Amino acid sequence: MAPPAIDAPVLLRLEGITKRFGALTANGDVSLDLRQGEILALLGENGAGKTTLMNILFGHYVADEGQVLVLGSHGALEELEPGSPHAALDAGIGMVHQHFTLAENLSAFDNILLGTEPLSAIKSARLPARKKLDELMERSGLAVNLDTRISNLSVGEKQRVEILKALYRDARVLVLDEPTAVLTPQESETLFATLTKLAGDGLGIIFISHKLAEVMASSHRVAVLRGGRKVADLPTEGSSQRQLAELMVGHEISETVREPGTPGAPLFVLTGVAAGHGRDAISDVSLDLRAGEILGIAGVSGNGQTTLARVISGLETVSAGILMLEGDELGQVSARQMIDIGLARIPEDRHHDGIVGAMTVSENLAIEGIRKPENQRFGMLRFSAMRDRAKDLIEAYDIRCQSEASPARLLSGGNIQKIVLARTLETEPKVVLAAQPSRGLDVGATSDVHKRLLAARARGAGVILISEDLDELMRLSDRIAVIHRGHLSQAEPTEDLDRSKLGLRMAGHDGEEAA
Amino acid sequence: MIEILDILVSENFWAASLRIATPLIFGVIGALICERAGVLNLGIEGIFTAGAMAGWMAVWLGAGLWGGVLVAALAGGLFGLLHAILTVPLGLSQHVSGIGVTLFATSLSYFIYRTALPDVSSPPRIEAFQPLDIPTLSDLPFIGPALFQQTSLTFLALILVLATSYVLYRTPLGLAIQAVGDNPSAVESQGLSVYALRMGAVVVGSSIMALGGAFLTMSAFDAFFFGMVNGRGWICIALTVFASWRPGKALIGALLFGAFDAFQVRLQTEVGSFIPGQVFLMMPYILSIIALIVVARKADYPRALLVPYFRGQR
Amino acid sequence: MIRFEPRGPVAVSKVISVTVAAAVAALVLAAVPMLFAGLSVFEAYGLMIKGAFGSAFAFTEMLTRATPLILTGLAAAVAFRAKLWNIGAEGQLYAGALAAVAVGTGLISGPSFVLIPAVILAGALMGGLVMLGPTLLKTRLGVDEVVTTLLLNFVILLFVQMMLEGPMKDPMGMGWPQSEPILDEAALPKLMDRMRIHWGLIIALISALGVYFVLKRTVWGFEIRAVGENASAARHAGIPVTATFIRVGLLSGALAGLAGVGEVAGLKGYLTADLSPGFGYSGIVVAMLAGLSPIGVVFAALFIASIFVGADSMSRATGVSNYLADLIVAMALLCVLVSGLFLRFKIRFVGAPHAKEASK
Q1: What is the spatial distance between Cα A321 and Cα A334, in angstroms, rounded to a whole number?
Q2: Is C355 in contact with A379 (Cβ distance < 8 A)?
Q3: Using an 8 Å Cβ cutoff, are A58 and A177 in contact?
Q4: Is the pLDDT of residue C355 over 50?
Q5: What pLDDT score does C134 carry?
Q6: Which residues of B touch A90 (CB under 8 A)?
């Protein structure tokens, strides 16, 4: 890709930004320039401080030290008022957050207009706004039905609305936080084509990512953050994936490798299962999980994964179809019974569904088996037994916490996931359902999760791995099926698949069309 | 049967329905504005009481009727501000804060009333709002008397329904309020202040609630009694759910409710000798619970209702 | 600019001192209405302290008033622990009282050791059943229990009035709407001669210990805490959330029902429609002051009871309305709510960002 001319003016400058949260330094003395027409990738692993930095830029946080400078109307850099999203917007900074900031109960049009008109106006000036937006969509190729309620839009469309929000406000700098996390590979390509075009029109673009491939393919320059500090700032041309990976992680990385395995007999079988309502419903889902294999389920979020996971967890009743474990049909089974017969689950949202933050680490480790004899006798809790077991698990799973009596909410995301892993895998379940098990974790914690899942496979458990991360799926799964609009494709051996085939299926094209 | 029909076609019945509905219209519109912005206001019962007491006392002290209405709204706004501060920037439990505001507003109103009038045996009366008599319009058959036996406050309530509807759906401010009750970060990312919108909505909503109380002492009756609000605030919270947070439906819901109540009062005079009076008095509360049950399955609560928003957390 | 920073676990001593500070703050704020009413603040507080603690009689009166407050406080505390918003303790109290009177005025006869447990059981059961309705509506249909429990308070009070004017009216009551007196064998014994203090207090204290034990040491308590803190995670971990809500609802209603039993079978001896001056609502304040701790409820109830008894006595002496007591109690709730911030967050006052100052 052709970088912008060297003499392109600097649009945005961060100078010595430092931000602390208690003892943690999220950003330490970070400085950064962005030129007009440039696409800058901000690379770093989860927890490296990328999002914090961009939130300071956008005024969600105030930096403890340092300042943000923006190219003013007189052609000189001017300081941006800290802590004010309003000022950031006025200075032409637009931000597309990873979790979309859209009001679901309003139309796309209303969301774009929100905040652009004075609140004292007794009427909304919709016609001129409409005209401007039509032109913008025409020029940028970002098409979206403006009158649709956000709740009825797909993830890709919502992202387009977010970008339009920024463009409508005449943004000169566009920041995107992990923009491809929720897209298919093909959608990602389209997005980057659009961004390249926008940069060609003079927009400065920063995108946050931890995916090396897209950084290499689509940026002019890369800034690498590690532990809150900028460790590198180099042109993309001439750098290598390996070099960037080591800069990002700080040491040489060894990837988890899946040893070839020999899957056993069918273990857990779903036949023609339907459940759920609306967008997240699933219908006619069939899968057969064998002992000693990892079955990956790929798909863009919101295509029924959540419902499928809830069914397998015993949290949702099926309206049609049957579930069979080791040849026995499961009738109406509660979440409790599912655990008891050996189906463990690692919930997608570990903070919300995985732990009870106000309870202690020890209590969270015991919660799934609280009615088992080792934890209670005649309905009375056995505290010392719970404590001892917790100490063992903390050691075995390397859970970093002050003590087993500290509240679980004080732990980091990776350690919270270790609590969940410890309590679910310790019982040696027959089936493990892992929903987005490494989302938001850093490289170390991710590789820990992967090792645990592979260990479960090695001892003969069947693992269902639901993920949006194709690399993770390709690396761990023996077979992969794709879920799209509530339908699950036939699982195929990973060796027969590649990213683009999976991507097409995630977008709803079936195998023949893809071929 | 004939008697029932007689009741339903009588002008007085519809006039009474609208009269009973009026305080509820104020209450539901107020509650709806708060909840659309994402704040449940259980202070409503106390704010009704405060509006009733403050409005009445202002008139009694010589502020004039409209002066009383203004004082009531002001009192409501102040208690609303208290609830807003506790629940919006401080992010405290909306349930507990609301109950606290109700207890506080109620006991403060009672205390002030008792302190100002230590030993009155029968509550002093004021010259209340009189029915508006608009020539020619009141002579219209049927709707004329039903509509024009009402006082100015009823008309104010109807105007507020229209105004709220317009603001909520047609103005930038209304869209921002709808957005802040659905996803506060959508509002903040567009440069608007979540706190200002929510606090503003709670203060304005609470002022409107207080007018419902003022209607009781300045139009329905002409004096202040202890316990006169009698759960009307809670009924409004139920009706807000029933109305799915829409001003138009709120009006219909309140009118339906008023009609039921007016109907059972008239039924009571017919069959009162067989059925104890309390059964009829229970009806409004039972009706509210039934209304909640009817809409429970499809109730589409504002997504951010009850969820405090702290800046920088998403 | 004020900044909230989440803090880790907090020592019990800190919790207690912050809560006491909140209660003191409410008393200090109460000086405003006192001055408004023309009272001398120190004199008024002197009269209140004397009224609640000044004599053996005053002290036992305070304990008598605390008895129902401990029970309604426990009812609120246990429900709020599970985030089941039971605001209906007032109605459940009346339901319990009604059942106690129905059983205790001659439905069955027998010696005390049969009748007293029967009366207690009937009241607790009825209170629990009343709360079962809103709980089931919440778990089955998703109906908000705040509004249903609030509305039921009015329905139940009217129902009690209906019964007192109809089937349960005392023929010897000279036309007053009140029930027949409870049989001597069914009445809770007095704790002291010539004082009104009765065995209800012992029941309340045992209940507090019982609730403490259940919450702290049993599987059910574990499940209640888990559901209250994070129902979604509890559900994922296989905890029976619906069953837990039902258990909590029954327990909470039963505790409020017991408060009603104590008031009719221990104190008044018969039922009238003005049995409770809002014990159900004050119970919420008690529970919040106690930080939802069952043991804390006992102390919080004593505090609230001394305000009520003290203010009554002060009111008799000065002629100032005893709504002052309700006012102080309401302010105590708001103060303790705010004080919670100091426990959850480190509150730091930091200078405004310099650019903000420059731009203004």
Answers
A1: 16
A2: no
A3: no
A4: no
A5: 97
A6: 191
